[in-house]
Amino acid sequence: MDRTFVMVKPDGVQRGLVGDIVSRFEAKGLKMVGAKLELLPEERVTDQYREHLEKPFFPGLKQYIMSGPCFLMVWEGRNVVPIVRTIVGATNPAEAAPGSIRGDLALDIGRNVIHASDSPASADREIGIHFTPAELVDYTRIDESVLYE
Ligand code: UDP
């Protein structure tokens, strides 16, 4: 099974959206295999967003991500990376489809509520930045036998 890294950003935590967001992934049939609430240290923010270090929005992005606790998760399922990106919606909430998390719950690209890995390689990398193997739990969801062909 594939895994992806998902993080409710500080605006999502402050606005009390964690429950709604977790419910959407649970209802889809995905399996949560790791979760924790954390104030992220600067090194992990810089590492996660290393491709954006030189972008003009990076200082503001770093300040935003470190402004309060984030809710970090690892989700598992077949094709989980593209499935979660679709549920999350476009980076700019103005372009995010209704029904997606950013389409329903966000207004501004700089306060877009949630992060999700954009490829299986980034997922592996980001899970490694934020979770130890011991923090990821191996178990079976009771409905797994009916969720997949
Ligand atoms: N971002 C921003 N301004 C921009 C582009 C990106 O503040 O013009 C922030 C936004 O929080 C976004 C994050 O940087 O989610 C990472 O950007 P990326 O293009 O990787 O989008 P994502 O993968 O989060 O959809």
From TrEMBL:
Coarse class of the protein's main subcellular location: cytoplasm
First-tier enzyme category under EC: transferase
SUPFAM superfamilies tied to this protein: Nucleoside diphosphate kinase, NDK
InterPro entries in UniProt: NDK-like_dom, NDK-like_dom_sf, Nucleoside_diP_kinase, Nucleoside_diP_kinase_AS
Alphabetic keyword roster: ATP-binding, Cytoplasm, Kinase, Magnesium, Metal-binding, Nucleotide metabolism, Nucleotide-binding, Phosphoprotein, Transferase
GO MF annotation list: nucleoside diphosphate kinase activity
Active site residues according to the UniProt entry: H115 (pros-phosphohistidine intermediate)
Catalyzed reactions per annotation: a 2'-deoxyribonucleoside 5'-diphosphate + ATP = a 2'-deoxyribonucleoside 5'-triphosphate + ADP; a ribonucleoside 5'-diphosphate + ATP = a ribonucleoside 5'-triphosphate + ADP
Locations listed in the record: Cytoplasm
HAMAP family: NDP_kinase
Functional description taken from the UniProt entry: Major role in the synthesis of nucleoside triphosphates other than ATP. The ATP gamma phosphate is transferred to the NDP beta phosphate via a ping-pong mechanism, using a phosphorylated active-site intermediate.
Family indicated by similarity: Belongs to the NDK family.
Listed name of the protein: Nucleoside diphosphate kinase
Taxonomic source organism: Methanoculleus frigidifontis
Gene that specifies this protein: ndk
